[in-house]
Amino acid sequence: PDDYIADMSQRLRTYKRISSAHSDEELSRIHEEIGDRYGRMPESVENLFLYARVRREAQSLGMVSIDRIGENLAIKLGEKARIEPENLMQLLAENKAATFSPSGVLKIKLDSAPGAKEQQVFSVLNEVLNRLRKD
User: Fold this and answer.
1) Strand extents, DSSP E, 8-56
2) Is the pTM of this model over 0.85?
3) Per residue, what are the HEC states of 78-134?
């Protein structure tokens, strides 16, 4: 937000650094630098870091998209997604509200209402990504 980083060009550079980070270590360094330079981060900036980590992980697993639709997460798996099919089947068996469509979309019902904190959404996403990953 502009009340956190007032200079627009600096804000854009910071956003680009976060979105193009290649590792958790790099994101951690950027997080520390921003905190040192601008002070305590607002929730929206923390969410940007959470988003960057989830996005990087999802791309590495071959996921095409992740959308929040009301109280559901819709995770579109690519044709060559690098997930363990047995893990997907186990997730579906354990979570009766979860569905998987023939078009490759995994829908996970969130425990909370649409206005829930974004950190809760990221937590659910991280858990799902970790469960689907090949061992």
Assistant:
1) none
2) no
3) CCCCCECHHHHHHHHHHCCCCEECCCCEEEEECCCCCCCCHHHHHHHHHHHHHHHEC
